[in-house]
Amino acid sequence: MPIQQLPMMKGMGKDFKNADYIDYLPINMLATPKEVLNSSGYLRSFPGIAKRNDVNGVSRGVEYNTAQNAVYRVCGGKLYKGEAVVGDVAGSGRVSMAHGRTSQAVGVNGQLIEYRYDGAVKTVSNWPADSGFTQYELGSVRDITRLRGRYAWSKDGTDSWFITDLEDESHPDRYSAEYRAESQPDGIIGIGSWRDFIVCFGSSTIEYFSLTGATTVGAALYVAQPSLMVQKGIAGTYCKTPFADSYAFISHPATGAPSVYIIGSGQASPIATASIEKIIRSYTADELATGVMEALRFDSHELLIIHLPRHVLVYDASSSQNGPQWCVLKTGLYDDVYRAIDFMYEGNQITCGDKSEAVTGQLQFDISSQYDKQQEHLLFTPIFKADNARCFDLEVESSTGVAQYADRLFLSATTDGINYGREQMIEQNEPFVYDKRVLWKRVGRIRRLIGFKLRVITKSPVTLSGCQIRLE
């Protein structure tokens, strides 16, 4: 009697709306490429979240400040250094952050505000009119970054970007402050720094600027590097993040159907699968522009997290040797969007803000709950052919024994890739029972096709691998 091995890293089924084959992605589960028990990898629940502190509001931005060796967060109307309030921040939307030797900068409400470490707060503005220095039309700040002793910011609605003065960071450079990304007539959507370049992200191009090294008064300090230009744009100001020694971004509809790319050597390489592109395509351009991307790493996982209005998608670079490996994060027992955002390694903890409540949390690897609430974990197998076969002994290897009470795993089957039948409950975890088997002894007779769904609702960590079934 042959034993069929069933992969769980990615299920396969059909879309009931258009009959297309689609991927069923793991939900709240991360794939780990490691040889365990005759399997090439296993799936592990995403770490749970425990409450850390009450704060002033929902999370709006975060940055690790290397000058102060501390994490700066904007939550609600306050700027936090670690757990201490160091300033007030206006508005309620997402903010851009950068830092230097003397100040932490926040781009909010069209202004670049510098919170100096000595307690003073300054807003970047023109030099006094009687100073004799050039007066610029500074406009509204859209995004900020920092490179080599200067803050740089993009002017909203234009292709101009500015740099601050070396001696007084609260004013633009006294001689050569303004530069233009002339390939972006629609305006610079976002700005960042990579190695020794200023990177300007537009809707159809990404342009790089490098230092000229000029010391002559009035000479340009930055010059465009056309050899590095990328013929893709970003969907929104925060739809980009440093990732894998480069930048990852969601592309703008101006260059075709949006997807997820990583920049490398002047080229953009796609990392999204067809199913991920279908999810991204379900959003309008305005909805996509509100997306936020961030990078996170722990336990050899190199994660790219994409926060969209209705989905949180996770790309794991460390598990993608045999093709892009994606999963979905969610909160609760239904399809609520994942609540944590702005992850940062702080001390020896990974801390995070929250999208819905005025709290900060920290990831805990010995739980899978979020703020003491049970979470749902879903895995799917591909549908496979088993014409007129009888099926026995569907078994999943589970690392058990750490639950507070007996947990159950819900197994259901599909014969068409769309509808899943009645769930079979199997005990899959029990306190101090470290060798428990997860086994469905009699599955039944299969007419043609079959696929399985595994569902676990628990506060405990979940580790599953090696799904197999015996056919007659």
From TrEMBL:
Pfam families documented for this protein: Phage_stabilise
Look up the domain of life of the source: Bacteria
Q: What is this protein called?
A: DNA stabilization protein
